[in-house]
Amino acid sequence: MSWDVVVFNLKRRVSSVDEIDDGVLVEIGTYANFEAILKRRFPMLANEVGWLKVDFGEYSLETSLGELDETFSNTIFHLHGENAVYELIELCKANGWQAFDTGLGHMLDLDHPERNGYMEHRRYVEQIMSKRP
Fold first, then answer.
1. Which of 8, 13, 57, 87 qualifies as a FRET site for 93, CA 20 to 30 Å off?
2. What confidence tens digit (pLDDT) does each residue in 76-86 have?
3. Burial code of 108-119, b = ≥16 C-beta within 10 A, e = fewer?
4. Residues 6+ away with beta carbon under 8 Å from 94
5. pTM (2 decimals)?
6. Those residues with Cβ within 8 angstroms of residue 13's Cβ, 6 or more apart along the chain or in another chain
7. Is 125 helix (H, G, I), strand (E, B) or coil?
8. Are 87 and 55 in contact (CB under 8 A)?
9. What does the alpha-carbon distance between residue 108 and residue 125 come to, in Å, rounded to a whole number?
10. What is the pLDDT of residues 59-104, one digit of tens each?
11. Distance between CA 30 and CA 27 in Å, rounded?
């Protein structure tokens, strides 16, 4: 199961996703621009039929693309493995982006990644899985 994190380009820092609206969203650019940003950060980036994937062996991250000329201000990343969040945090910090953990319902703390907690994510997944028949 992936750890899903939404990345936003915003005019100002927010502490909650509730503070995000059209007034604070800023375009990242087109998907082609976004792919170029990712390729500079991750030269091993693979584009697999609209999915951009970065595989580090024991962990990976991926995001899907829309039309290449479509502009956007946010996208969702699917993280696999404990260290994927650190790669995403560094990407966000390098580009001035912010990130929201969809499972846990809070913004990621980019300055203190140890607070984001892969272990919290694992507990969340285990809780969901324990409720399945």
1. 57
2. 999 998 889 99
3. bebeebeebbbe
4. 41
5. 0.84
6. 98
7. helix
8. no
9. 18
10. 999 998 777 788 899 999 999 988 899 999 999 999 999 999 888 8
11. 8
